[in-house]
Amino acid sequence: MRRHLPTVTATVTAAATAALAGFVLAASAPALAHDGHDHDDPVTRPAASAAHSRAGAGAELARMRRDLARYTDVEVALADGYVPVSPCEVSPEGGMGVHYLNPALVGSTDPLAPAVLLYEPTADGGARLLGAEWFAVDADQDLATDDDRPSLLGRAFDGPMLGHSPDMPVHYDLHVWLFEPNPSGVFAAWNPRVDCQG
């Protein structure tokens, strides 16, 4: 079942549509291109990085959870530029929730600045924070190449993949389930514990 949060207004929906259209323009922006292999970046450096170790990644995930906890209040997310751009997404593999996008953060690989926050509608009409998603536009829009694949905490983004709507370009993304445990894994795209039922 898919449904929108009941509080989404026509104004927010218009902003979300504009944000999605911005993805297409962002595809040509060089600032959004990442090679995913920056060995001087302490967050994405392979085995030598503390963040790449199990203990290092655990500590970094805990730091992300602490910093992003302010978004448990969806009004804080809205004030910071996040707008809902999807219904509550579910599949046979589980759910993702409602995607709240901050267009200014598309392409970010900063662990504390995700482009997307994931919320599940609650029975009282509110929204419960589940996790975050980092989203980057594929520079050449070619599914056959991935030389600009970003990474976070030593984990390569999923993709490149087709957009999920006509306005969304070929992209990479990485889901991180910081606030809702995921039996499929902290970086899995779908979470079987998320059902969008409120």
UniProtKB/TrEMBL annotation:
Residues 34-56 are annotated as: Disordered. Residues 1-33 form the signal peptide. The keyword Signal applies. It comes from the Bacteria. Residues 34-43 have a biased composition (Basic and acidic residues). Residues 47-56 have a biased composition (Low complexity). Keywords: Signal. This is Uncharacterized protein.
